[in-house]
């Protein structure tokens, strides 16, 4: 990942610009822990014409309180299979120990290690006797094969021991291998992630080296609203763990459920890049948590029926229900968004919310990239190259049409050009696949960079 | 020991040894067999218990879902079902079925990828005419309406479950169970399971491994047991048990090895013990015989001089010695016989002391030439009586480190023997030799009949007397050379016999020299 690419991430931009642009039309909802907004790509639509357009509904976490954070219920799941031997297991242990050291006596921690055998070396307990927890981690040695599924089942069981409490539940899975004992399909792990998410358990995955199955890892973390990391060099492990724990400790809201009711005249067609439910005019989605300063959003493609010149009408009302991480109280928050109709096409053109446009474009780009990766997997490198090429052109066009988005769009276009040449020459290798998968993940899940 | 005796002993030891080993191997095999059986039955029990646990867990989860379905209000079907799907970890999808229309929720539009995959799964599993409200099952001639239940089918991804219930006679609702979440909640390994040698696996009939407990690899191993789960609950699911212990070929080999080792050990120890006992018994018997011979020898040896002394003393007392010459001759006999008696008794006493290791040696430097002169002179009575001449070849300044009395005793015993058995040779030659290692050897050679070389060692054993014509006519108690050997050893030297060239015997006395 190069630095220029980092700049396209949502966290790096001033969202206030968008707020100013739509201030007249949208009413943002703000409570202590978060702000909610409903923003269509264009705030002014051509009058008397039907149109299909993206609507962004975003949640932005407020500043995490330095004190009185919610206790965390953490389970570290560490691969000790034979391939972890040497530097990797040593760094993983170091990282796990550093994570344990950051916990306070109110937090709960458990440690599960696995090869083909699964051992709970630290059963769920308060992080009081850190010395004995640390010595249990230190004693871990590498061996055997990789039973990720069994280890996850065990980790979930450890988390469930304290599931009734108001904890932030988190599993951190560290592995460098393919699941080769028990279920091993990425889709199975995606389903497991969905199920864990419903229990309020997020799984963050840390893949080490180039041999792990990134689809499995991203499916698991993506569907459970956790983070996903790819670490080629095990030296980065302590930093990744620290960042992961840091973000987990900065959670401002838990059990976030979002319900978007579209107003008459606007019909939701598709949720882009996320999983949610559309039932008539209602879209529902869940997030396990929102971190301090993090923006999470959902993009919905919606059909707008024609409107008369110089009228405005509401697009949708978003309702957020969540548990405030500090007070553990259930909170509710609403926000609405609306559009105007105009015959003045210049006004329509100027009403584009470039931030929302960029996010929509990047999301579509990530989805296209995922599709191209699947084509490469199927041995259809030529077809994949065509997709990459098309994305490159699309990003270049975006850069031309929207000067404000030029740096981000050009950087993405050059990335797609690299992908194109790799796919065309048949050199789209494991590293390229992992890097692209990670970038897609960060875009689609609005993951904050470590 | 006679050959027949040997056979008897071998039989006496060997037969019980073989019987014992046979019994031991039999018991070993039997115990092993019993252990395997016991273990088998324990593991069988444990795997059945596990199967029951899995079944219970599955039916318990299904039951919970059924209860949740029962609580769904007819007025808010879709909302309630969506809430179930949103919050219940075990609910993968929900659906509403209506008579004539089929699946009405999820609807036909705005379908998510998961909705689509559910509908295609549903269509593959259930024909369009599948009626969730039809009176289906027949029980004892009566049609029974199943109002709710669990529908099971197996597709490419394995077992799938749908928990359903009738809402009314036109409508039914259902939950597709999240199988992976159900599997994740089936924890397999009981805490007392020995994970190092056994593994237990939940697999389906296609051999797809779903849950795994234990430490041994199942690859390349056959399951010892396959316990199928209740087909009405979890069809195609099996509990499989793998073990690294119950490998019959290996355990048979182990039994054979242990049995073989046991037999060899038993036989070896029995034979060794038997051999030692037999040898001890033979030695005891020989010692007893030798002691009897010794007593009779000693008695004879004591009696002969005593009889002579008494005879000549009586002759003197009765005044038979008429002349002074006869008087002197009689007294001479008495003196000689007394000396002989004294020597004999000294030997017996010495022997006793040596046997009890009470003899103390006073080692000193001895000038061999001077000592030999005086020792030969002291023994002149004996040698002269036997008609022997002693020749000495002793270099001057040769000094040995020895106990003077002990050395004289050895010398006396060897010379006495020569006089007794090698009279006919007429000469005793005494020579010296020194070796580089600081020992000197005194060789005493005669020209007698010599001795069979096979007795070379045994002549130094106590009570031993060579049993031939030479010794038959000469008295002795078999102690002289035994005493000589012990005395020489006591002084740090040795005594050996070797045949002399051209007939006769040589006794070699080695002693440390004195520097």
Short description:
The complex is a heterodimer of chains A (450) and B (515). Helix content of chain A is 38%, strand content 30%.
Mean pLDDT of chain A: 86
Unreliable stretches of chain B (pLDDT < 50, length at least 5) are none
Unreliable segments of chain A (pLDDT under 50, ≥5 consecutive)?
Answer: 1-25
The CATH class of the largest domain in chain A: Alpha Beta
**Residue share in helices of chain B?**
40-55%
Total of domains of chain B: 4
Q: How can the largest sheet of chain B be summarized?
A: 5 strands, antiparallel
**Global outline of chain A:** globular
Q: Give me the CATH fold name of the largest domain in chain A.
A: Rossmann fold
Number of domains of chain A: 3
Provide the spatial order of strands within the biggest beta sheet of chain A: 3-17-16-11-14-13
Taking the sheet with the most strands of chain A, its summary is: 6 strands, mixed
Please state the overall shape of chain B, judged from the principal axes of the Cα atoms.
rod-shaped
How many beta-strand runs of chain B? Answer: 18
Q: Provide the succession of SSEs of chain B.
A: HHEEHEEEEEHEEEEHHEHHEEHEEHHEE
Q: Please, what is the CATH homologous superfamily of the largest domain in chain A?
A: von Willebrand factor, type A domain
Query: Count of DSSP helices of chain A?
Result: 13
Estimated share of beta-strand residues of chain A: 25-35%
Strand content of chain B: 15-25%
**What Rg of chain A, in angstroms, do the CA atoms define?**
23 Å
What strand line-up does the widest sheet of chain B have?
A: 2-1-7-6-5
């Amino acid at each position: 990942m190069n630095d220029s690419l980092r700049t396209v991430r949502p966290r790096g931009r001033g969202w206030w610009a968008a707020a100013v642009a739509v201030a007249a039309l949208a009413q943002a909802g703000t409570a202590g822990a978060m702000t909610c907004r409903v923003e269509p790509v264009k705030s002014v639509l051509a009058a008397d014409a039907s149109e299909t357009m993206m609507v962004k509904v975003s949640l932005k976490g407020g500043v995490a309180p330095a004190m009185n954070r919610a206790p965390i219920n953490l389970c570290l799941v560490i691969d000790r299979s034979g391939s972890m031997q040497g530097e990797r297991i040593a760094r993983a242990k170091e990282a796990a120990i550093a994570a344990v050291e950051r916990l306070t006596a109110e937090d709960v921690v458990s440690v599960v290690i696995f090869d083909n055998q699964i051992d709970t070396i630290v059963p769920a307990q308060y992080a009081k006797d850190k010395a004995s927890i640390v010595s249990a981690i230190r004693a871990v040695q590498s061996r055997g094969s990789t039973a990720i599924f069994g280890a996850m089942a065990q980790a979930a069981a450890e988390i469930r021991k304290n599931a009734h409490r108001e904890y932030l539940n988190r599993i951190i899975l560290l592995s460098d291998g393919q699941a080769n004992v028990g279920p091993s399909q990425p889709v199975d792990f995606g389903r497991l992630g969905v199920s864990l998410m419903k229990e309020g358990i997020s799984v963050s995955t840390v893949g080490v080296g180039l041999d792990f199955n990134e689809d499995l890892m991203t499916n698991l973390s993506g569907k459970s609203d956790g983070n996903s990391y790819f670490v080629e060099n095990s030296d980065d492990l302590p930093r990744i763990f620290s960042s992961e724990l840091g973000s987990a400790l900065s959670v401002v809201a838990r059990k976030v459920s979002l319900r978007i009711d579209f107003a008459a005249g606007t019909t939701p067609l598709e949720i882009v890049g996320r999983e949610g439910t559309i039932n008539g005019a209602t879209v529902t989605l869940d997030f396990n948590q929102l971190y301090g300063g993090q923006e999470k959003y959902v993009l919905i493609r919606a059909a707008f029926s024609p409107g008369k010149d110089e009228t405005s009408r509401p697009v949708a009302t978003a309702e957020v229900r969540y548990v405030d991480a500090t007070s553990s109280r259930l909170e509710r928050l609403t926000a609405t968004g609306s559009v105007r109709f105009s015959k003045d096409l210049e006004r329509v053109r100027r009403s584009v919310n470039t931030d929302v446009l960029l996010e929509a474009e990047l999301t579509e780009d990530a989805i296209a990239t995922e599709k191209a990766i699947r084509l490469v997997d199927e041995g259809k490198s030529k077809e994949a190259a065509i997709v990459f090429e098309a994305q490159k052109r699309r990003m270049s066009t975006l850069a031309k049409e929207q000067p404000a988005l030029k740096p981000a769009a050009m950087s993405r276009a050059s990335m797609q050009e690299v992908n194109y040449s790799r796919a065309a020459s048949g050199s789209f290798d494991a590293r390229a696949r992992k890097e692209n998968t990670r970038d897609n993940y960060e875009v689609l899940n609005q993951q904050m960079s470590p | 020991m006679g050959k027949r005796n040997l056979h008897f002993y071998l039989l006496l030891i060997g037969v019980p040894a073989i019987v014992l080993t046979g019994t031991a191997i039999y018991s070993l095999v039997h115990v092993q067999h019993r252990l395997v059986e016991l273990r088998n039955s324990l593991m069988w029990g444990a795997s059945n218990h596990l199967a029951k646990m899995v079944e219970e867990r599955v039916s318990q989860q299904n039951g919970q879902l059924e209860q949740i379905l029962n609580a769904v209000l007819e007025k808010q079907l879709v909302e309630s079902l969506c809430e179930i799907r949103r919050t219940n970890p075990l609910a993968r999808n929900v659906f509403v079925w209506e008579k004539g229309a089929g699946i009405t929720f999820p609807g036909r539009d705005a379908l998510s990828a998961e909705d689509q995959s559910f509908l295609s799964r549903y269509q593959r599993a259930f024909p369009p005419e599948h009626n969730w409200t039809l009176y289906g099952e027949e029980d004892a001639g009566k049609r029974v309406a199943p109002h709710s239940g669990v529908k099971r089918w197996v597709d490419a991804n394995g077992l799938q479950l749908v928990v359903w219930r009738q809402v009314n006679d036109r409508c039914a609702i259902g939950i597709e169970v999240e199988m992976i979440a159900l599997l994740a909640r089936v924890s397999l390994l009981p805490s007392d399971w020995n994970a190092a040698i056994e593994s237990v696996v939940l697999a389906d009939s296609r051999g797809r491994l779903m849950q795994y407990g234990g430490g041994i690899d199942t690859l390349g191993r056959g399951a010892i047991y396959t316990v199928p789960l209740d087909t009405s609950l979890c069809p195609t699911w099996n509990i499989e048990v793998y073990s690294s212990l119950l490998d019959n070929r290996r355990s048979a080999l182990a039994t054979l090895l242990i049995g073989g080792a046991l037999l060899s050990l038993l036989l070896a120890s029995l034979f060794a013990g038997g051999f030692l006992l037999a040898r001890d018994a033979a030695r005891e018997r020989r010692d007893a015989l030798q002691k009897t011979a010794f007593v009779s020898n000693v008695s004879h040896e004591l009696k002969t001089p005593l009889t002579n002394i008494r005879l000549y003393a009586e002759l003197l007392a009765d005044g038979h010695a008429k002349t002074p010459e006869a008087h002197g001759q009689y007294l001479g006999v008495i003196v000689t016989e007394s000396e002989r008696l004294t020597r004999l008794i000294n030997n017996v006493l010495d022997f006793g002391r040596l046997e009890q290791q009470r003899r103390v040696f006073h080692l000193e430097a001895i000038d061999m030439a001077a000592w030999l002169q005086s020792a030969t002179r002291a023994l002149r009575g004996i040698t002269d009586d036997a008609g022997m001449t002693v020749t000495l070849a002793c270099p001057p300044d040769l000094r040995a480190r020895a106990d003077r009395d002990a050395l004289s005793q050895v010398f006396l015993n060897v010379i006495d023997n020569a006089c007794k058995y090698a009279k006919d040779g007429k000469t005793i030659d005494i020579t010296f030799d020194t070796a580089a290692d600081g020992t000197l050897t005194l060789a005493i050679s005669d020209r007698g009949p010599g001795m069979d070389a096979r007795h070379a060692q045994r002549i130094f054993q106590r009570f031993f007397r060579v049993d031939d014509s030479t010794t038959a006519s000469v008295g002795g108690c078999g102690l002289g050379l035994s005493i000589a050997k012990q005395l020489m050893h006591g002084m740090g030297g040795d005594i050996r016999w070797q045949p002399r060239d051209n007939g006769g015997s040589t006794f070699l006395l080695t002693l440390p020299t004195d520097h």
